[in-house]
Design brief:
alpha/beta; N-terminal domain of TfIIb; Nucleotidyltransferase, domain 5; 3 domains; five-stranded mixed β-sheet; three-stranded antiparallel β-sheet; 8 strands; 35% helix; elongated; binds zinc ion
Length: 248
């Protein structure tokens, strides 16, 4: 963690002097004499867990260990595990790619929320948008295209009414499956993603708290598009602006 936060050489986060020394798990600057801890000035500043427990907890989250398993492994309360898993989600970087080429798009419904999602075929690029009501209309679908689908893409959807004539709203070539005629080939990848999303939420978090659904979706999409970020706690921390720059 020290290497991720400070790089090769420690420095004082107050005055940037490299004249620092360690005493009893705290650091002090010889130049400005101020004390600091390893995590001063990072988003882990207020952490109350030991670093060993923190590392185990982060390992569990990166490896998709379910909440109930993590509680047992780390000897923590459910509240603490859910709090930290949420912190880890909220510190993920934002990736909002523009999709091009062949793109599959579909929507899914969760209680009072709807989810629009699109995937560029043969790639790990996904775009998604949560809509805070239980249906999606054509202008919301079109707006999603404006944001995330490059003009001249080939857009593949099911025969849903919200996609009818969508190529008049945005310059794409629209192809559609008619499910009642047992056509599914054009949307199979995106429908598989929705299935995997539901399984991910159920397995890891056990139930979907509606207010957190947008966060679960972001986490799921990043796990899919940037798996290297989740390969170890250090790879995750390196991507989350943990680096110490300046306390001011
Ligand atoms: Zn200093």
């Amino acid at each position: 963690m020290r290497r991720i936060i400070f790089g090769k050489n420690m420095f004082c986060p107050w005055c940037h002097s490299r004249q620092v020394y360690c005493s009893e798990n705290r650091y002090r600057c010889r130049h400005c004499r101020k004390p600091f801890s390893l995590l001063s000035g990072t988003w882990l500043n207020d952490i109350k867990l030991s670093l060993r427990t923190f590392w185990s907890l982060l390992w569990c989250w990166t490896q998709k260990i379910p909440v109930l398993q993590t509680i047992k492994l780390c000897h923590l309360s459910e509240k603490t595990v859910r709090f930290w898993f949420r912190e880890f989600r909220l510190h993920l970087p934002d990736l909002e790619p523009i999709l091009s080429g062949q793109v599959q798009m579909d929507e899914a419904y969760f209680k009072n929320l709807s989810l629009l999602m699109a995937k560029q075929i043969g790639s790990k690029k996904i775009a998604r948008q949560v809509i805070f009501k239980n249906s999606v209309n054509k202008s919301e679908a079109a707006n999603f295209l404006f944001q995330y689908i490059q003009p001249k893409s080939i857009l593949q959807t099911d025969g849903g009414g919200i996609y009818r004539g969508i190529n008049n709203w945005w310059p794409v070539t629209h192809k559609k499956d008619i499910h009642r005629k047992f056509e599914f080939g054009l949307t199979s990848e995106i429908e598989g993603m929705f299935g995997n999303l539901r399984t991910f939420i159920r397995r890891m978090y056990h139930h979907a708290t509606p207010e957190y659904l947008p966060e679960y979706v972001s986490e799921f999409c990043l796990r899919f598009s940037s798996p290297e970020m989740f390969s170890s706690p250090s790879n995750y921390l390196a991507k989350t602006n943990l680096a110490c720059s300046n306390l001011y």
